[in-house]
């Protein structure tokens, strides 16, 4: 089952590193447009950072929808990932503009999957991440067993603290809506700088 999982690497910050990650055959590359993040692309990112052949994901937290649309056009984003308190209407507006929308939900043991129901028609994917104050990139896992409570029809990406040694556990999940994994801080030498060997090994193992 995991052979077909989409591999998204998030928090790309450096052009050369992005080129190396891209060469591994990943499916999606994520770029963070959220100032407080250690992986923020910056106010004046290197133009070469976005010159990728891989589909690009712009990651936002509570950003104005029209600002998102402008940046998506400027940087040729095909996907938008929303990590804040964006409502279904905002998600639907962006989707109706031709963008593929991932809506992130912060997970802990008290999360109620009924929360996702209103978003079903307005997004393409959910992204289940560990609940923290930082809106992602924490390096912490949530209890993956709670995914058994998700019975929706929207496919999801698994996020939150995934590391090089998690291949076997991911393969055991067997959830019919698991569409991909979101890799970030568990594969870094420093914020935004991905360790190519760790990523290469993980990708080879997950696709066996």
TrEMBL record:
Catalytic activity from the UniProt record: N-(5-phospho-beta-D-ribosyl)anthranilate = 1-(2-carboxyphenylamino)-1-deoxy-D-ribulose 5-phosphate
Domain (N-(5'phosphoribosyl) anthranilate isomerase (PRAI)): residue spans on this chain: 8-204
Pathway annotation: Amino-acid biosynthesis; L-tryptophan biosynthesis; L-tryptophan from chorismate: step 3/5
Pfam entry (one): PRAI
Entry annotated with the keyword Isomerase: yes
Gene Ontology molecular-function annotations: phosphoribosylanthranilate isomerase activity
SUPFAM superfamilies the UniProt entry points to: Ribulose-phoshate binding barrel (SSF51366)
Similarity remark: Belongs to the TrpF family.
Protein name: N-(5'-phosphoribosyl)anthranilate isomerase
Organism (species): Draconibacterium sediminis
Name of the gene encoding the protein in the UniProt record: trpF
């Amino acid at each position: 089952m995991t052979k077909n999982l989409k591999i998204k690497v998030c928090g790309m910050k450096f052009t050369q590193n992005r080129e190396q990650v891209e060469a591994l055959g990943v499916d999606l590359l994520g770029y963070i447009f959220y100032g407080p993040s250690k992986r923020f692309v910056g106010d004046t990112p290197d133009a070469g950072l976005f010159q990728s052949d891989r589909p690009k994901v712009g990651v936002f937290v509570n950003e104005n929808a029209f600002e998102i649309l402008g940046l998506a056009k400027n940087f040729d984003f095909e996907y938008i990932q929303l990590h804040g308190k964006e409502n279904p209407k905002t998600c639907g507006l962006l989707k109706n503009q031709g963008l593929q929308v991932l809506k992130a939900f912060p997970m802990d043991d008290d999360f109620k999957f009924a929360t996702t129901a209103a978003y079903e028609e307005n997004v393409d994917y959910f992204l289940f991440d560990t609940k923290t104050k930082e809106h992602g990139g924490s390096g912490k896992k949530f209890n993956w067993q709670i995914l058994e409570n998700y019975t929706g029809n929207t496919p999801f990406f698994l996020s939150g603290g995934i590391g090089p040694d998690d291949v076997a556990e991911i393969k055991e999940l067997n959830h019919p809506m698991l569409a991909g994994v979101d890799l970030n801080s568990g594969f870094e030498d420093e914020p935004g700088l991905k360790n190519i060997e760790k990523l290469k090994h993980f990708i080879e193992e997950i696709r066996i």
